[in-house]
Amino acid sequence: MKNLSIEKFVSDVAELTKPDDIIWCDGSEKENETLISKMLKEGIFIELNQEKNPKSYLHRSDPNDVARTEHLTFICSKKEEDTGPTNNWSQPDQFKVKLNGLFDSAMEGRTMYIVPYLMGPEGSPYSQVGVQITDSPYVVANLRIMTRMGKRALDYLGESDNFVKGIHSTGDLSPDRRYIGHFPEERLIMSIGSGYGGNALLSKKCHSLRIASVIAREKNWLAEHMLILGIESPDGELTYISGAFPSASGKTNLALMKPPEGYKDWKAWTLGDDIAWFHIGKDDRLWAINPEAGFFGVAPGTNMKSNPNAIASLKKNAIFTNVAVTADGNPWWEGLTVDPPNNLTDWHGKLWKQDNGKAAHPNSRFTTAIYQTPSVSPKLDDPQGVPVSAMLFGGRRAKLTPLVYESFNWVHGVFIGATMGAETTAAAVGKVGVIRRDPMAMRPFCGYHMADYFSHWIKIGSSMVNPPRIFHVNWFRLDENGKFIWPGFGDNIRVLKWIVDRVKGRGKAIKTPIGYIPTPDALDINGLNISSSELAELLRVDNNAWLEEMKEIRTFFTSLGKKLPNDLLKELTNLETRLKA
Ligand code: GTP
Ligand code: SPV
Ligand code: MN
């Protein structure tokens, strides 16, 4: 069966980019083997110790191309006002002329790969197909793990023309000729000049968030930068939780959490670590699917203690990007072991010395299939997804925001998400550790006007009798010595337990101006090295500091202009009044 729309798309792009040859990817094992041997021959893949890491490889990016580049990312809606002030805008026809110029003959001497991919489970009415054209075999190998790729996607699509188009070339990798352009009205993505992560794996941020968020607004659902996990209590009660934390701020780790000593009777089930698509179910609840099939996880900090499930998931069939390698060919990164091993090769491929800086790039990553984690949920491929009872927002904040607090209601919860502030990380090019407003962890990923996005969130909640409860968490509070006060990782289940208790109407709470916080006895810190004064600090609401924060929030709201929903302004005024009382 031929899909004429795809054929036309491919021939148009081939005419522009002039590749030497064209390979249609079917997703088979044989195709993958051919691709891997080609990459090994060309040095794109470096073989790791195959005994310890079967079928796993290392890729080193160009040192100029190791993180997303938000300043080079554009949303080209027909009207500028549909893009909004948090995105870069360019007039679509003009931007296309510029990009077409860069794509002209860009694949001369290269192979063009056609990668059909399915986002979401087979048989789900909520899944979507995309077709990415790329000249990067590394991208193909990643998409194979991170999406349901090849024939499966074409089978789902049939003869339909309802697919997202992605055109990608690594170009010459120069940041001067690097652009990631989105054309929401055309369901089209054009990306040139980068081979890295969210810039190049177009299924991920470009399709599943920027384009999908526009579709979701039209069709009354939500496309979010969220993890999904199931928490099962010792008596078998299952509660599904989703959470939006900015890039490199804990989604993968929470999604893969392993309950620690003392919580051995609890189970945590992984459904997704980065993206969630939500639909309102017939039961009036919010149901989530994960459109992806793999992780593109931050390597540094991952170890047997912090994240044993991640370590287990990357024992085979893994791609490592910009990590270091040990003398015997095993991947290594800061935090994997307490001390760095001798004779490390750093992410540039040079012998590493103690004063050379980091051996692995801070945004080095692993790519593995979700099916390889021992915690994979049996519901991962369920066409309906899972019903979500609680949504978490959170970011890195050394100070101010407490370990956990709960919103008073949906609109207040939307306010909490909309006003999130978080420290920037190495996942995007730019300064690290600067606090910025990152609403719903979607600032870099919302494909339309942020104020319209807030209105859409309010509307979704008001059309449900039973919307999820909304919470805010912060695992990253620092003490005066710069140390994390909260142990985090597996111990975050203690916070999730309170959240589950609240959802079920059991957990004890105190009302504060910002929301409900746990009573000191409602949060289990048994066996932790946390004093009662540290716990008090973790849960403290400092009214004056919050009033300072309100100034930032007001400035941010003002920057969004007239479209800002009045409901959120009212929340802000009410909160200021409560803080002053
Ligand atoms: P993206 O893939 O960029 O979207 O990131 P993410 O949100 O999935 O973040 P991830 O879970 O990969 O965590 C990023 C970094 O934060 C890693 O270095 C982790 O070790 C660290 N981290 C994650 N969870 C915790 C936690 O509970 N406490 C502390 N202190 N650090 C954490
Ligand atoms: C993020 O930055 O939020 C990521 C990594 O998940 S990337 O694929 O580069 O977007
Ligand atoms: Mn992410």
Output the structural class.
alpha+beta
Number of helices: 15
* Mean pLDDT value: 97
- Strand portion: 15-25%
Q: Which compounds are bound in this model?
A: guanosine-5'-triphosphate, sulfopyruvate, manganese (II) ion
Radius of gyration: 23 Å
Low-confidence stretches: none
Overall number of domains? 3
How many strands, which pairing sense, and closed or not: the largest β-sheet? Answer: 9 strands, mixed
CATH class of the largest domain: Alpha Beta
From the 3D structure, determine the CATH topology of the largest domain.
Phosphoenolpyruvate Carboxykinase, domain 3
Give the overall form. Answer: globular
Task: Please estimate the helix content.
Answer: 25-40%
**How far do the termini sit from each other?**
69 Å
For the secondary structure, the number of strands is: 28
CATH architecture assignment name of the largest domain: Alpha-Beta Complex
